[in-house]
Structure formats: structure tokens, C-alpha cells
Amino acid sequence: MTDGYQALRDGAAWLDLSPRARIVARGRDRARFIHNLTTNEVKKLTPGDSCYAFVLTPQGRIVGDVSILCRPDDLLLDTEPELREKVRGHILKYKVADQVELEDVTDSTAAIGVEGPGAPPPPEGFTTAPFTVTGQPGYRIYCSPGETAEVIRLLEAAGVKPATAEDARVVRIENGKPRYGEDIFDTTLPQETEQMHAVSFNKGCYLGQEIVERIRARGHVNKHLTKVEVPDVVPPGTKLTIDGKEAEVTSSVRSPGSGKAIALAYVR
Q1: What is the dihedral of CA 5, 9, 11, 16, to 10 degrees?
Q2: Which of 254, 260, 266 has its CA nearest to residue 182?
Q3: To 10 degrees, the CA torsion angle through 152, 157, 161, 165?
Q4: Which of 112, 115, 153, 83 is nearest to 17 (CA)?
Q5: Dmax of the chain from CA atoms?
Q6: If I label 252, which of 16, 33, 157, 204 is the partner at 20 to 30 A Cα–Cα?
Q7: Which domains does the chain have, with CATH numbers?
């Protein structure tokens, strides 16, 4: 059991999340435009509000997932490193006469995650948002690359320990929190992910909505992403039978806390 894992589970840990992609939407129509291309309520956000949403194809499949922070003059979209070009390109494909610009600010900004039940109040003077990669309580600090060392110094002075990406992955899977590219794919439908806090059923029309509504009317999908106990850590794509049902594993780890192997799997 590493110190980073222990801090994420029981205390507070910091994670360098600067490799994650950050895209800023500016312009008069930014809220309406992003609202029409994501699954959650964006138009109702006021500065300081945030939400989690999917970006869909017209066929209702998930192109990517984004954490959206509303700031006074823009919207900040935070997504997986691998989705940096994909999400921005997909959104821009639907820009016609909209007064909106999308700027990739990944290289000119940095992000530090503070996660765990003992996370202290964030240091003052930085933009923060209630986003976490592990599903633990916490927040994300946005700053310039030159301010990263000072942010880490302030956090460590408050007792926050460093944790690795692998520590975070273990805690994420223990918490049943999926990651795009590992557990959610471009073939996945929103209802299959069990992440329905990403979807508003009251917001009106958006790209892919027709399929999402059709599934809701039908009442079910054929498989759901579920946290399960497995006999041992297995490779992604392993097919198992769990409680008499077919399941396909997307990610699995051995939990240092329980000693058991746990997995995220699509269970029929």
C-alpha cells in the first residue's frame, strides 16, 4: 500500500493533472453553442458553476466526456489528454455563424488535483473547480505552468501528499468511476455508463438527444457498466460470468485496502 494511495483514501493527495486537455470557449454565443453539443445544462451555468457532460455523435455514441467550468468571460472544458484534438475538432465541425472561439490552452496552463476526504481548503488566488479523477472528495486547481511549484509547496505545507497516476487509477476503480478510453468508448451509449449525472432530460434539443430519449422511452439498454469483484486482475476485454450474467471487463486492479481484485465491466 503506497503513501499516495493511503493519502487518497484516508487523507489528502495532490496529482499532477497538467497532461489533461483544457479548451476555453469564448464569444457571445459560447453557452448556447456548447449547450447544444453536450448532454448537460450549460446555458443555466453562472460563474463558479460547473457540470460534467458527454459530447455525442448524432447517433448518440460518446465522442468524449468533459468537465465544464463557467467563468465570467468564458467556459473551461477539461477532458482526457487523448481527447485534446478529437473533442475540439468535433465541436468546431458544428460551428456555422456562431459567435464562439475555441482555444486550446493545454500548454499554457497547468492543473493540480487535490483529492481525498481530508482535502484542505484550496489556496487563495487560483481558479478551482470541484472536479476529481478518482471519485473522492476534492477539487482541481488551475494555474500557469510557472505557478505549479508554488501551488505544490502550499499544498504540501498543508499536509497534502503526492500521489501517482497509478495510485489514482486504483482508487478510481475502487470507487467505480469510469475513464474515457479505458471504460467508456466511442461505441458506448450514455445510459450504458451509469453516469447519468452527465445527462439532463429537461434541457431541450442537443446533438444525439433523439437516441438518448429513445432509450429512455424504451426503458433500458442491454448492458451497464458495473463495479464487480473478480477472481483475479484480468486484461481488458476478458469475458466472465457474474451472477449468471455475461460480463466484459474494461479495467481491473487489486485493491490494497481489501486485498480483493475488483473490476469495471459491462454486465448484460
Answers
A1: 50
A2: 266
A3: -10
A4: 112
A5: 56
A6: 16
A7: 3-171 (3.30.1360.120), 222-268 (no CATH)
CA angle 237, 242, 247 (to 5 degrees): 30
C-alpha cell at 50: 460547473
pLDDT at 220: 82
Distance between CA atoms of 141 and 238, rounded to whole angstroms?
Answer: 37
Q: What angle do CA 63, 166, 111 make, to 5 degrees?
A: 65
Grid cell listed for 63: 465522442
Q: How confident is the model at residue 219 (pLDDT cuts 50, 70, 90)?
A: confident
The interaxial angle of helices 3-10 and 165-174, nearest 10 deg, is 40
Pairing state between β 224-230 and 127-129: unpaired
Contact 169, 88 (CB under 8 A): no
Tens digit of pLDDT for each residue in 159-184? 999 999 999 999 999 999 999 999 99
| DSSP, residue by residue, 35-72 | HTTSSS--TT--TT-EEEEEEE-TTS-EEEEEEEEEET
**pLDDT at residue 57 in the model:** 97
Q: What secondary structure does DSSP assign to the chain, as a single string? A: --HHHHHHHHS-EEEE-TTSEEEEEESTTHHHHHHTTSSS--TT--TT-EEEEEEE-TTS-EEEEEEEEEETTEEEEEE-GGGHHHHHHHHHTT-SS---EEEE-TTT-EEEEEESTTPPPPPTTSEEE---SSSSSEEEEEE-GGGHHHHHHHHHHTTPEE--HHHHHHHHHHTT---BTTTB-TT--HHHHT-GGG--SSS---TTHHHHHHHHHHT--S-EEEEEEESS---TT-EEEETTEEEEEEEEEE-TTT--EEEEEEE-
Closest among 110, 103, 129 to 51, alpha carbons compared: 129
